[in-house]
Design brief:
This is FAD dependent oxidoreductase. GO terms for molecular function: 4 iron, 4 sulfur cluster binding; metal ion binding; oxidoreductase activity. Keywords: 4Fe-4S, Iron, Iron-sulfur, Metal-binding, Oxidoreductase. The chain has 454 residues and is α+β, with helices and mostly antiparallel strands. It is 30% helix and 21% strand. Bound molecules: flavin-adenine dinucleotide.
Length: 454
């Protein structure tokens, strides 16, 4: 490939703080809140114009759809996201669980409110592009924005970009699932104009279960057996019919999935139906193709729903997510990488920073936490190798594929994010690196913040 040299340049330091959090999804938002509440100054840096990550930018509204009566959870900031959203009219009861579904638009306001109340310095519309290094220690970040390049300096940095952008550029080792076996990407959408009564009658007359997720075609699913007969808001039949009638080409038997919330106003949101293989979320050309192909498939899916799904005859596209939804990119090679055994067999760790119910969803596995089983989450899975002053929270922590089918979930990202935020704050206050922080003090502060760690 041809190359050019960029001239060296001076960059203004526009802000200095204790903890910089890069990325504001469930992981980053929780990290920023936890650090601020633990008593340090925090800047929350986000490339888009709202906080919330996949919740707001992609439209992923199912925050805790795994929750049943016996489910045991960490509580903490993840639970607060749901409770605050409910209080602010930005959540509705979820159809398959004892949880609330977040409203992707309303959650923008919830996140603003939480950030303001905690006294976090908000820095939207800034994309992280490079680390500022002092030897092997990260001491700040460079962002690009309409203002050009800017530097932000901090004593500790938390990478919550979902893609380990900061860790990767700072020189920490990362790995990616090969493209062919990556979790699919999805273009998400919301509908307007659905007849609620007719739609719900259709669902009740032909209820789908989690077993139906594995109903042939591109879809296979491993459950623990207890999930098989449980209700799932799954839709596939209209798309099979559309293939039979020649409306959708046969190779698009990947169009199927779940609906989210159905509002009295006729909006049917969080339509998780379009799945695209081999989209690499770290490659803009691959993302470009995915966005365009995803929108094309969405319109086929909507036409099939209009023709073959009760209540959808007058439905129309209300909006796409602001960006394509990416599930699977870089993970750090951490001080400890979580394993399939840890998530399947209730892993226990001395350095636990929170617990997570036995909820595994991804790579063809669906296990729901209906029994009270749970795992602990180790602090070391957030510690990258080779770079000091840096923690990685959210979906790019260290772990194998099946471990990620549990830890990628938004409420798990929030638990891990809260742990990262508290640890970064404790490191700043004690003048130590995050790799040497007093874990008893971290666990104590997490308990004070309402997190269950054992
Ligand atoms: C279509 C889809 C459906 C899903 N369904 C569910 C579900 O039902 N339930 C569930 O629990 N999970 C679900 N997931 C998974 C879940 O949404 C993610 O794993 C989770 O949001 C990851 O959280 P995070 O905080 O690590 O990252 P994200 O939510 O991805 O947030 C990362 C943030 O960092 C910002 N960012 C990224 N790079 C930069 C940069 N260089 N500079 C500045 N900012 C940056 C992004 O704009 C974003 O705001 C789904 C995912 C997808 C894609």
């Amino acid at each position: 490939m041809r190359q050019i040299s960029e001239p060296a340049r001076q960059v203004d330091v526009v802000f200095e703080t204790d903890v910089i959090v890069v990325g504001s999804g469930p992981g980053g938002l929780a990290a920023a809140l936890a650090a601020a509440r633990a008593g340090v100054d925090v800047a929350l840096v986000e490339r888009f114009g709202c906080f919330g990550g996949n919740i707001t930018a992609v439209g992923v509204e199912g925050f805790a759809w795994y929750r049943h009566e016996a489910t045991i959870e960490a509580g903490g900031i993840g639970r607060e996201f749901e409770d605050r959203a409910k209080d602010m009219g930005a959540a509705v009861p979820e159809s398959q669980s004892l949880s609330y579904e977040l409203d992707s638009e309303g959650f923008k306001l919830v996140a603003d409110r939480l950030v303001e109340e905690a006294g976090i310095h908000p820095m939207l519309h800034r994309q992280f592009v490079a680390p500022v290094m002092d030897g092997d220690r990260i001491v700040g970040i460079i962002t690009e924005s309409k203002a050009g390049r800017e530097a932000i300096l901090g004593k500790m940095v938390i990478d919550a970009t979902g893609d380990a952008d900061v860790a990767h550029r700072a020189g920490a080792p990362t790995r990616m699932t090969p493209r062919e076996t990556m979790m699919a990407a999805s273009v998400m959408f919301h509908l307007a104009g659905v007849d609620k009564t007719a739609f719900m009658e259709g669902i009740k007359s032909d209820p789908q279960t989690y077993r139906d997720w594995g109903g042939g075609g591109e879809w296979t699913i491993e459950t623990s057996g207890k999930e098989d007969e449980m209700f799932s808001p799954f839709i596939k039949k209209p798309f099979e019919r559309a293939i039979q009638e020649g409306l959708i080409p046969a190779h698009l038997n990947t169009i199927a999935g779940t609906w989210g919330a159905l509002h009295d106003t006729g909006e049917l949101t969080y339509m998780n139906l379009v799945h695209l293989d081999a989209v690499d979320g770290t490659d803009p050309d691959s993302l470009t193709k995915g966005e365009i192909e995803g929108r094309r498939q969405t319109m086929l899916a909507i036409e099939a729903l209009r023709r073959f799904m009760p209540g959808c005859e007058g439905a129309r596209l209300r909006n796409f997510g602001m960006t394509i939804g990416i599930r699977d990119t870089r993970k750090i090679d951490a001080a400890y990488n979580m394993t399939e055994t840890d998530v399947r067999e209730q892993g226990r760790f001395e350095d636990s920073i929170g617990i997570y119910p036995e909820f595994i969803d991804g790579y063809g596995i669906l296990i729901l936490p209906t029994t009270g089983r749970y795992m602990q989450l180790p602090y070391r899975a957030m510690l990258p190798k080779r770079v000091k002053g840096l923690l990685v929270a959210g979906r790019s922590t260290g772990g194998d594929r099946i471990a990620h089918a549990a830890t990628r979930n938004m409420s798990c990202c929030a638990v891990v994010g809260q742990g990262a935020g508290v640890a970064a704050a404790k490191a700043v206050k004690s003048n130590r690196d995050v790799g040497e922080v007093d874990l008893t003090a971290v666990q104590g502060e997490l308990k004070r913040q309402g997190v269950r760690i054992d």
